[in-house]
Amino acid sequence: MEQKIKQEGIDIGGNIRRIRLEKGIGQTKLVGMLDLEGIGMTREALVKIERGIQHITGSQLRGIRDCLKTTYDELLK
């Protein structure tokens, strides 16, 4: 079972949403991009992650970083 990353004190979901919007990528498109990377995630799960009500896994975070062409520093600040 993969470790879930707690978002205490860090707005990972908000950072994902901000970067996604800055790049003009919709939630459905990001989920499709993740699927192509072999990371299964529903749009509903992405919504919950962005709202901070669902923990994100390490592989999901890595996939989002790659798809958004950003850094862990940007996602975790």
TrEMBL record:
CDD domains documented for this protein: HTH_XRE
InterPro entries per UniProt: Cro/C1-type_HTH, Lambda_DNA-bd_dom_sf
Domain HTH cro/C1-type: 16-75
MF GO annotations: DNA binding
Name of the protein this chain belongs to: XRE family transcriptional regulator
Annotated source species: Schaedlerella arabinosiphila
